[in-house]
Amino acid sequence: MPDTHAAADPRDLLADLIARARAKGADTADAVLFEGTSLSLSQRLGKPERLERSEGRDLGLRVFVGRRQAVVSTTDQRPALLEEMVERAVAMARAVPEDPFCGIADPDAIATGPTPDLDAEDPVEPAAEALIERTKAAEAAALAVAGVTNSEGAEAGWSRSAVWMAASNGFVGGYAATRHSVSVSVIAGAGTAMEVDYDFDTTVHGADLDDPEALGRRAGERAVRALNPRRVPTTKVPVILDPRVSRGLLSSFAGAVNAASIARGVSFLKDRMGQRVFAPGITIVDDPFLARGLRSKPFDGEGVRPRRRAVIEDGVLTTWFVDLRAGRQLGIPTTGHASRGTGGPPSPAPTNLWLEPGPRSPEAMIRDVGTGFYVTKLLGHGANVVTGDYSRGAAGFWIENGEIAYPVAELTIAGNLKDMFATLESASDLRIRFGMDAPTVLLQGMTVAGS
Fold this sequence. Notes:
alpha+beta; PmbA/TldD fold
């Protein structure tokens, strides 16, 4: 088990909390402890603006009295307050209505045996000077790009979090994870002809971070390329999504296959299990054990061992994201996708989710569409997982004669996720970095609303 940098063993704290709850009348209980340390720095135009370090512990207790449950949390773990917390939780559970689907995992369903090696913790904590150097390098490189006129600032950060969980079914487990990050945002042009763009990276290990100078150059070049955008008439053309925005489709897909939504009947994919949802050849993978993955974990928020799954295999929907409660509603087992905080009960969520790459390069896609819209920015939240209707503000570049021709902005792309998924083609440039990743994707027959 990882060292949580705490004076007392977290396992003892959680076991004591559960024992107190049982003694006060709870039939079953589980508890989670989140411990975190973070360091962050920001600068603008070469001058540091903020340097912060924070540490905290957040404790959550969930108790069950029959089929009634209550959740309480606290950041103050003094013994007297913990006793009050337990009493309050049990009293609340006795007062709330019954939920026939709530409850912890059966003992034979909990994660046991060796913990997978996730390589999720970088043993090196960077000094503040290292973060300063990252922000300086990123911002300076961005400002050095011809046409960049100002900066919105650069940031760098590091964090370490430890998660511990125990339950009255015998489960106990813990793991730690680290994050390193760097970002920069700059402005190109002047007056009414200005464009803002950015770049960022987040990794588990500092050694895997993109070079800050290269990251800064990309941010500056993107801002300059977007200057003097045009509008185009409303039309229906192929749309190509840059990887920066294509992973948003995965977020919409994840919401549509969330078993809680399926159980409520509020997903456009509620009746599509075992059917073709995407084009043949499309595969979407969810992997909780990805080494150095930003969402990797050895167990889910209910102490269940997850596993790698092809959620979409050759275009066919094979599974939902299921936690215990939604599984009981649907009459199916959990898939180990429970996500958990301290202030509420678990709910389903993906782990490391990505769209597998296809055979064609992005350049080949652009060349072959002839005329189309290459999208680099999306605005708003216009995906409706109940109906599948999709409408987002967009900016990027117009494609003419198979080449990037000029920047465009103030457009809207619209369609329906059912049709978009059915025609989606993935390019060959997948880079798994952010916990939800997709390569460049091609969507056929989208409506582009402009002037």
